[in-house]
Amino acid sequence: MNTFNENEFIEISNKFKNKPIIKNIEIKCSKIGYLQKMKKLVKNDRRGEVVFCVRRPNGKYILITCEEYPKGIFRIPTGGINYDENIIEAVLRETKEELGLDVDIEDFIGVLKIKFSFENDSEMFYSYIFVLNEVGGRLLEDASDDEVSEIKEAELNDFEEVLLKLININKKWIDWGRFRYETSKAVYSYLMDRRKEKI
């Protein structure tokens, strides 16, 4: 089973002033297929992912979509953490590969410990969430990965519509939509809390 490295989490947390969250989530898959997909990812490809909320110099946040997604669906970008890869290095690498951007890490929001389950079977997956500031590069032009087909610059107030579309996505995408709803919602909740603190 994919296990959580608490020492690694503490090490990342110590680099930042805010107290990061640890949230346990269970996604009960509607079909065995999505659980099998996650099991295959964990076995062959990644132990978890980085979720990177990038703030542009104009103050807006980057949302992405891909060719295969249903029309009008956007989300906070993510990328895999390879086995034996440092998580901080992973977030910087993935932001460059996916978006073509150089970034500074503003904050580490925390981790979602996600249990994907179907009937009596399950797999653990870990989403490490960061807020980043764009400092260089050319958006998408300098990306080495062509997975992202389009970006949208969003104000914080735009996130509610994004979340609503993810949680109400059509049946073929329902398990993926719930997964991406949780990662994007964690970012939105953090940014809203921070906005309230400034008022």
List the keywords.
199 residues; alpha/beta; Nucleoside Triphosphate Pyrophosphohydrolase; five-stranded mixed beta sheet; two-stranded antiparallel sheet
Question: What can you tell me about this protein's structure?
Answer:
The protein is α/β, with parallel strands linked by helices and 199 residues long. The chain has a single domain, classed as Alpha-Beta Complex (Nucleoside Triphosphate Pyrophosphohydrolase). The chain is built from five helices and seven strands; from the N terminus they run H-E-H-E-E-E-H-E-E-E-H-H. The protein has a five-stranded mixed beta sheet, with helices on both faces. Helix 4 packs antiparallel against helix 5. The N and C termini lie far apart (44 Å). The mean pLDDT is 94.
Topology:
Blueprint: H1 6-13, E1 21-28, H2 32-44, E2 48-55, E3 61-66, E4 78-81, H3 87-99, E5 101-118, E6 121-137, E7 148-154, H4 159-167, H5 174-198
Parallel strand pairs: 1-5, 2-6
Antiparallel strand pairs: 2-4, 3-7, 5-6
CATH superfamily: Nucleoside Triphosphate Pyrophosphohydrolase
Q: Quaternary arrangement of the chains shown?
A: single chain
Shape: globular
CATH topology title: Nucleoside Triphosphate Pyrophosphohydrolase
Number of domains: 1
Mind telling me the CATH class?
Alpha Beta
Total strands: 7
Strand ordering within the main sheet: 1-5-6-2-4
- For the termini, the CA-CA separation is 44 Å
What proportion of the residues form beta strands (DSSP E)?
Answer: 25-35%
